[in-house]
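Materials and Methods. Structural model of DNA topoisomerase 3. The 724-residue sequence of DNA topoisomerase 3 from Faecousia intestinalis was retrieved and submitted for structure prediction as follows.
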Amino acid sequence: MGRQLVLAEKPSVGRELARVLGCRRGGEGYLEGDRYVVTWALGHLVTLADPDVYEKKWEKWDMADLPMLPQHRKLVVIPQTARQFRVVQGLMKRSDITGLIIATDAGREGELVARWIMAKAGWNKPAKRLWISSQTDKAIRDGFADLRPAADYENLFRSAQARSEADWLVGLNVTRALTCKYNAQLSAGRVQTPTLALIAAREREIRSFVPKEFYGVRLKLAGFTAVWRDANGSSRTFDRALAERIAEACRTGTCTIRQVRRMRRMTPPPAAYDLTELQRDANKKYAYSAKETLNLMQALYEQHKLLTYPRTDSRYISDDVVPTLPDRLRAVMTGDYKPFAQELMRRRPLSTRYLVNNAKVTDHHAIIPTEEAPDLWQLSGPERNIYDLVVRRFLAVLMPPCAYEEVELTLRAGDHDFTAKGRIVSEPGWRRVYDRSFRLEDEEEDEPQTLPALEQGQRLSILGASVAVGKTPPPPRYTEATLLTAMEHPQAQVTDKALQKILAETSGLGTPATRADIIEKLFSAFYIERRGKELVPTSKGMQLVELAPEDLRSAALTAQWEDRLARIAKGQERDAKFVEEMRAYASRLVAAVKASDAKYTHDNQTRKTCPDCGKFLLLVKGKRGEMLVCPDRECGYRKSVTQVTNARCPNCFKKMELRGEGENQMFACVCGYREKLSAFQERRKSAGAGKRDVAKYLQQQKDDKPVNSGMADALAKWLEKNQK
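The predicted structure was written out as tokens:
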């Protein structure tokens, strides 16, 4: 009897599938049972070949050899994971394997992972597709009971392959052209560069902004405050003398209530989360980066099986998911969520008007809890925070709207009009799920005041009037939350009406699954740096935007490309046509770089020379501290100057930096605390830090990929010494 080979994307997912399918016999890189053999990739095992595989001359970076436009794509096995590829290839060639079940992530990139492995390994037997949105045992069993033909996803694969080829053609050609032209480590890409252009444009606005002082008048009355309004309804004036005259005229006496308006309003619950919205809220509330949130979601989806598939762009569910909602509510019936889940269960049938919309569900529905009951103590703090966001949003979207009465008073004091607004909540509805810190983006920042019971025509005594002074603020710098919004809706960045319409109909910059990686690339290339929550472009980033071809900076163009890739996935456009256009486009971009007469300046150049090639080193700020980097791409030397560590300051408990070299290495904190590394080691030893603590710390540093971490090196020596 033949067996089915199941190909997962990661070992952790593969082992879970094997457990559910009863595959218990282990081999190198796979698990086997009576009916199934489960194996896995390690992410991508196969990728597009580097330029030198096509042409030997392309091994050297030379402007004369550009553009690089190979006639046919070539796939190569990634050297670092070649061993696992050989395992998968061997299993595919086994005589008892009669079919393949593609069980990689259910999305565009997951499809590419599997198809390229199949192509490189020479798979020519039948194949089916497992397409599930959660990793619970029930979802896995249901998915295997409803396998789909792999051919149904052929267009999705073609879309993924076209995206990869376009990035190769545009990214590698323009990156080499810029690097060769300006003798600097510069890179560009069809999504990366327009995203950087958004940040750079905002920085130029801030630098050119000139603040203006404005004035307002506040009227103090018994129990509330009213604000002066001009004939156009504005509460601001740039005429200080006018504001002071109004305040002086209204400082004493009485005012009359001219109008009392009472309006019943309803605020519906916010829609369920897609990945981008979750990344926004996690950044606003917990300062998590987009990449951190995605990684936490992957753990909650794959390891803990508590949340559904994360890489989704839908905020709704389809009708077929509705019967599972009671089980999902029972699963979250714990802790703070229990009273709300119980209330919803008593209100049957469930109100799903704000959650169900078949027309707005694409490959995957919104992120919601699974039917798996959580062991909250097993979650890390950050995992618990993300789980909390999703569960509260899931409960909120099933609850009734918030009902309130809005009261607006219009008052007359002398010859001047004032207004006051208040709000009385009659039914909090979904807001009960959240604490008072929760606020929707489109709501007013000022908390509505409570107004006393007042009637039209009533006269009130004025207790005082004052002039309020403010300054027009510059546009705010992007945070990861607001940058994700700008990437999702780039039409807000342009003024041309026709262009806005085109952008509104496309999917924006990148996809929910790729936006986090794009932001991380901007950090790793030293194009942007983080100051608190703000993202600030470096000089290198600002210059790159000016040096890159104008077309490549366009949010409109790359958004249209993503729309075309979506059309390829739906079978509405041929992938070959798209790739051929990208070949021509790459040629035009290279020509534009060659013809440019712009200059690039290293304004972060130091007087320290590279020990390998002798060039002056550049001082750059990475995500984990400052480092010296050689500007020569072929040299690649880099050295840590200051390293942000996981060691906490004993005074203020903030993370400390490690500075210096050798015996002079010292911890430094922003609060002013200083401590030598040797003293730190003694303090840790006396506090009971053992070999296991140090090993764990070293692993954390390793996971964070530090560069030349002096502290990690020193602790490694300490650990080695104490193990002897």
